[in-house]
Amino acid sequence: MTTVPDKERLPAQAGFVVEIDKLKRVLRRNTLMDGSRRENDAEHSWHLGMMAMVFGEYAPEGTDLDRVIAMLLVHDIVEIDAGDTFIYDTLAVELQEKAERAAADRIFGLLPAGQTATLRGLWEEFEERRTPEARFAKALDRLAPMLANHHNEGGSWVRHGVTARQVMEKVQIIREGSPALGDYAAELVRLSVARGHLTPA
Amino acid sequence: MTTVPDKERLPAQAGFVVEIDKLKRVLRRNTLMDGSRRENDAEHSWHLGMMAMVFGEYAPEGTDLDRVIAMLLVHDIVEIDAGDTFIYDTLAVELQEKAERAAADRIFGLLPAGQTATLRGLWEEFEERRTPEARFAKALDRLAPMLANHHNEGGSWVRHGVTARQVMEKVQIIREGSPALGDYAAELVRLSVARGHLTPA
């Protein structure tokens, strides 16, 4: 464990702030809701933080929403090194895990030790999905592209040949974080199928 | 005051979430830290939320950092209608205020009434800069482009002919939110002048 001397503490923190600017250049599979360009991880993370504020009432009682927001701001930072993985690509998801752990070591390791542990802990909590906070955060992360695709004539579902059956597996993850948002997501899927923007099976 | 019926509550909230996607298309004057393109308000807001987490120890004792983060996620949403204003353009800043109030009415008004008040309150608190939370949030908002310009050979300072004297006025705003970050910002200005990336007066 390295210890950052006091006088190097603020410059080390600033170095981390500069490093994570790169998250603005990591592109996701889905587009902005108007379809104009692909979304990047940084603006996606902001949107999820806002969703936690707006949809917070649908989290289980006692959920610490401030922790949910912090987790969502941090959750994609490892993709600076590891890149984005399309959630319907199973093999890539497995290979991704090792790359993300190495990325977490490097990027969170730029911070003073106590902050390394805090931010890495938020990321691990999100990935493990064992706490109500992590399950709600993951639900929002899964709901966001459904909202985008629903408002963009199927969006990345159409481009990548995703079916309603596959999307319904993600709806189950939403339901585990928030039953009300799960019901809402299922309704979005039903409407998208009815409009011909998603194939049934 | 309109009241959103219960069954329209979640769709109204989703409508707000869809509407604020537009913040990803509002461009700022400064670029990403690598200079590759202009930064947008949504990714900027994410970056500020992260800065609040990382630099939180430099806020005055007792500052509610969760409130700072919420304020930073919300603070630029009015620019969806009102656009971004360059902080060194005094006349534009004055004209901007009226447009931003109208934008706040429209955009936060998409939400159920209680949430309209909460989010609009966060925006107003940020603008008024009377609480320690708002002063610290504003300090981070001023520090971010200094970090970007410092790491990008002067960046928007060079392009818009901004002088060190003008930047030092913004350093004072940083100091009011956080003396330690104010000192750090002053040091960035001194270094940028020494490197020829910022003219002294």
TrEMBL record, chains A, B:
Q: Which SMART domains match?
A: HDc (SM00471)
Q: What GO molecular-function term can you cite, just one?
A: 5'-deoxynucleotidase activity
Q: What's the Enzyme Commission number for this chain?
A: 3.1.3.89
- Pfam families on file: HD_3 (PF13023)
Keyword annotations for this protein, in alphabetical order, are: Hydrolase, Metal-binding
* Single GO cellular component term: cytoplasm
Q: Which cofactor does it need?
A: Co(2+); Mn(2+)
* UniProt domain HD/PDEase: residue ranges: 37-155
Q: Which SUPFAM superfamilies does the annotation name?
A: HD-domain/PDEase-like (SSF109604)
Q: Which reaction does it catalyse?
A: a 2'-deoxyribonucleoside 5'-phosphate + H2O = a 2'-deoxyribonucleoside + phosphate
Q: What does the annotation say about its assembly with partners?
A: Homodimer.
Q: What is this protein called?
A: 5'-deoxynucleotidase
